[in-house]
Amino acid sequence: MSIIELMARPIAFQRAFVDLGVGIAGALMLSQCIYWAKRVTDEDGWFYKSQQDWEEETGMNRREQERARKALKSIGVLEEKRRGVPAKMYFRVNEQALEKALLGSPQALELEDALETYRSTLNGLSKTGLMRAKKLGAKAEYVDYSAVLKRDGMVCGCCQKPIVYGPGQHGKALCFDHKKPLAEGGDHTEDNIQPAHVACNVRKGGTSQSSMSTQDKLSMSRVEQPSMSTVDKQECLPKANKSALIEQTITEITTETTPEITAERTSGPDRPDDSSPPSGETNPEPDPEPNRPDAAIQNGRFWGNQDDLDLAVWMWDRLAEQLGQDKPRQPNFSRWANTIRLMREQDNRDPRHIRVLYNWCRQHDFWAANIQSPDKLRDKWSQLVLQRKTERRKPAAESRDDRNAALQRIHEQRNSGQSGVTYEHQ
After folding, report:
1. What letter does residue 167 receive in the DSSP assignment?
2. d(CA 326, CA 313)
3. Domain ranges for the chain
4. pLDDT in tens, 400-414
């Protein structure tokens, strides 16, 4: 298929579906469901799609499909049914529920559905909230936001009205609020945290816009009130597994699109083109670089001395030389140098051994494609060393076997040559 033929098959995407709180993936799947619902012969509107069909049409993998389906079912706009032998999954759009949701009266999100659909998002928010509270110097402990929901239910602690959407940033979305704001001396403890609407949290406020990040200011201009605690605002951000944060409107920051998981999924230590360290928090202002006299390169908590940097550059040059024109973009050398420093200081690895083992990986049929960064080298160190030693012993053993076999043949030839020979004594 040519590129022109490929581009001639676009997918319809209804932007309004993002406002339902189902994320970009959920909106994409719902758009495709609407497309097929009008093109089936079944009188009740059921249509069949396999996992492979969804992936070919939308590009979503299995995990993304499952999350999108759960989100759509949680608000009642998508119905599923297995039928036939062998059983196949059929789908149908609940048009009445969809119409109510678009008009602002979606089906109430049940607590069990919220805990199941947004389990990973709630775990991410729990970690983010703890880190940001510690950053501000507040008394903080790890708080499981799922436990907070189980305790209070899907009810806003500010207005006492039901919360019908999952985590997001539009006014009716779920977020978590400090009853006594951290800026006023509140603690980050389970007793001081309650579920709330984003809009209710905004009304509560607590910090001027001047102390907020650019993303917070953008968000504030699109909800009901202009002031909101930076900490509370960040706790409304769900994690996700899509490729980027889309800032077209505040409602697009949903369970599939936030910067935390974006960096983790698209870069990560396993990729040589990793350009940003994974972090569970978004700092409103960058911290000053700490004083490290030996640092030849540093970026926040990532740093290394000149030897670490030289070795990192050498590793990249070896990889780039091997891949040629197919090489990825230049990596984050501060992170590479930091990993090499940790290998020296924490793992007691000799830089010469690091160089030798990485060079062996570059020449290996299997590991050349799997070890392309210091992070992966450090992670697989023991396995790589053991395999290298094993493969180095094989040629020596084979040479000994060959030598012994040759000696045996010579001995047999001599014996066979002397047999039957008569020596005459004069």
Report:
1. B
2. 18
3. 3-105, 114-263, 289-415
4. 666 777 777 787 777
Q: Is the pTM of this model over 0.90?
A: no
For residue 89, what are the β-bridge partners? 82
* Helix (H), strand (E) at residue 200: helix 198-204
Q: For residue 117, which amino acid is it?
A: T
Enclosing H/E stretch for 196: strand 193-197
Q: 175: part of which helix (H) or strand (E)? A: strand 174-178
Cα torsion 70, 76, 78, 81 to 10°: value is 90
Q: Cα-Cα-Cα-Cα dihedral of 255, 261, 263, 264, to 10°?
A: -150
Decide: helix, strand or coil at residue 17: helix
Count of Cβ atoms closer than 10 Å to residue 412 Cβ: 10
Residues 6+ apart with CB under 8 A from 277: 263, 299, 300, 301, 302, 332, 335
Pick the CATH number of 3-105 from 1.20.120, 4.10.410, 1.10.10, 2.60.120: 1.10.10
The whole-angstrom separation of Cα 129 and Cα 146 is: 13
Tell me the C-alpha distance between 240 and 380, whole Å: 27
**Residue 105, SS3?**
coil
pLDDT digits (tens, 9 = 90+) for 318-377: 888 888 888 888 888 999 999 999 999 999 999 999 999 999 999 998 898 889 999 999
Distant-in-sequence, close-in-space partners of 200: CB < 8 Å, separation ≥ 6? 156, 158, 159, 177
For 223-232, b/e burial (b = at least 16 CB within 10 A) is: beeeebbbbb
Cα 112 to chain centroid distance, Å, stands at 25
Do the bridges between strand 297-299 and strand 47-48 make them parallel or antiparallel, or are there none, so unpaired? unpaired
Phi and psi of 193, rounded to 5°?
-120, 140
